[in-house]
Amino acid sequence: MYIESYMKVVRMMKSLSVEMSKKEILALIIVILMQSLIFVIIGINKSYIHMDEAYSLGLASYDKISIEDNADFYGTWHTGEYYEDYLSVQEDEIGEFSQVYINQKNDVHPPFYYLLLRIFMGFNIGTFSKWPGIILNIIIFAFVTLFTYLITKKIFKNNKISLLITFISAITISSLTNVIYIRMYALSTLNVLITTYLHFKLYEQNKLDRKLLVFIGLSALIGSLTHYYYLFYLVMLFIMFAIKYVKEKRFKELLAYFLTMVAAGSLSLLIFPYSINHMFFGYRGQGVISKLMNFSVFSTSIFNYLTKINYFVFNNLLWIILIILLLLSLYKSKGKIIKIENNDYIKIIILPMLFYFVLVAIASPYIELRYILPICQLIFIVVIYYCYQLIRNIFSKKNIKYVFSIIFIIMLIAPLIMKIEPEVLFTNKKGIVNKIKTELNVPTVYFLNSNHNRFLDDIYLFSILDNSYIAKDINITLKNIKKIIYAQDLSKGILIIINSGQDNENILDLVMKASNMENCEYIVHLNNSDVYYLSQ
After folding, report:
1. What is the pTM of this model?
2. Of 56, 170, 261, 402, which is least surrounded by CB within 10 A?
3. Would residue 331 count as lying in a domain?
4. Tell me, what CATH number does 512's domain have?
């Protein structure tokens, strides 16, 4: 089914005059199978989930935005199944999809990704699994690789180099993060790449191509229903092509292109009218607008995101590679101007990519890799293109492929040497997960300070505990603690989890008195809390 779906897309691309030889198709299939194997291995090692991944699963399957909205969530002992219900589709929920739409209406994102995730979660009923989300992203990334190759082939005009760049771009740390992060960013990456490639085709057209405009309209529709940041990229592309048509006095094509975008936007709002409220009146939209007005954060945000790109997209080698190549180019050119080949396709990419990058750097609520993941493939292609241009100034044509190979081998080895791992792999959480599964599945009390609430960061932990209690903002007294643990079997001890902003020593002292425990062992620090094991 996987290969059959891929071949259907290839046939669709042929309808857009995309010709690939049988050798190219076979090579791409081999690359996709290789990257998919790597993705599966990384997925196996994923040990925990980020709170936004928990939101993805809950928003796709639960009847509320957050499990914390339940009336009985706080102040009640619950089994692991209570939390697992939020992270999975239950028997009585099979065939129900309305919560996907309703939850997104009440949240801050459009619904298309969550609909796909809900479908994949339907293959694993009743229990939490990371695999529906990861498998969905693995399939999406097969098509990311296809369009990365098509874009790269247009730019480099060399099948072998394009194939090599495509494969390496698929297994950078940013791509591995994109695949195992159960969010909409892999799908948004695909939307950006499809939109880019279709605009390449539009650039090549000398006359109106209605079929191509239909595909562009569909890509704009799906992109806008996946993530709002996609619109940053699309808007700049639209402006560039509108200016191009005006300059060339191709007003018929301009009108058709404009109407295509209007139709896509209108249909998007018809399907999900709440987008207007999210983008302009919701708390995220208001946050974006306020940050856009605050230019003092501009330079810091840009620098921090450039650091992210160096670390995750180029495995912490970007500046080293660029400096070495630039110095060698200057030495080789002996003061002459370094020749950079003019490339129209690169020009089409750069401005929308930079526009997206700058706006996201300013507007994103946090400096996080995930917000720029949709353009990381393009960043990789563009930077490698200019590295390629520098290499052409230094080495002979027959040696270029060897230099490229050496650079890519170093990039592949670097994460192993520097111990760089995908952002949401969470190998540091493997110990606590295994410990709870095998040794410490004992009654657990989470003392929660709501001013620092990131409970969903640790919901997976609670889904594997047999018995747990969330004590939110309670008055920490001996009497209240005794009331919480009353009638609980503490013969094997008790786990205490305390999040930020509290007096841990005081809480632990009172719990030990209330439970008659004598020993206190510090276990681990989670994302926003500390875990202790108390025993007799």
Report:
1. 0.93
2. 402
3. no
4. 3.40.190
